[in-house]
What does this fold into?
Amino acid sequence: MQDCTAALIQLKPRLGQVAANLALIREQVERTIEQGAELAVLPELALTGYFLKDLAPEVALSLDSPELTSLRQLSSRISIVAGFVEVTPDFQFYNSAAWFEDGELRHLHRKVYLPTYGLFDEQRYLGRGDRFRAFDTRFGRMGLLICEDMWHLSAPYLLAMDGATTLVCLSSSPGRGVDGVELGSAAAWRTLTTATARFLTCRVLYVNRVGYEDGVGFWGGSHAVTPSGEIAGAAPEFDEALTFVRLAAADLRRERITSPLLRDENLCVTQRELERINRERSR
It folds into this structure.
């Protein structure tokens, strides 16, 4: 594992305008390269916009599309994480996130938990992913999550059990509610990311978008959390921004020595009890 400077790229995608979004992404990634970043993280569906509905098949990208090839090639200079609508050869559509590194597609995650309530209608238009897998990068072992995935406790837990020391969550979270003087959705996400980092003694990078679609505003507030649950850097709310954070291996080592929670985690007990619960529910 090596130290890394990560750039959280909080931007405003245009709904359904893939070419314009790609140009914006490339411009922002080039800026992060100029400022010495080694990892650039973009929001959920950064290439397409979020409230696509019936537009999803029109903007979907295959893994060998020119747009993703462009990002793959750019990753020879900086590792890149980006969200998009993926189309498979058999015309299945997914809310996906890709990790590009050293000019290659290193990992692909398809969103498992598709919100279909309130403002959200993803399951009507998109297929569900079926796995959570950690993967190796030049910065250590990583895990990808897409927005709603992180609200299911089993998802970050599985990635941590698979060896991920950093969780990267791409998000398109609208601003909703008021919690005292703080936006409710902002307070909820910060509670979630800091608690997850502390319980799993891992780093969390959360990257949210900004802008408006169909009258809905996205609140931004992208941030990085240390393994001790402290916010190490945060972007402003509602404005486009580049936020740079340093991921130091020493911080992770120190916290895991101080709080050896993962060392003491008994995966066999968890597996056995889940199997029991499943059997009892199936009766």
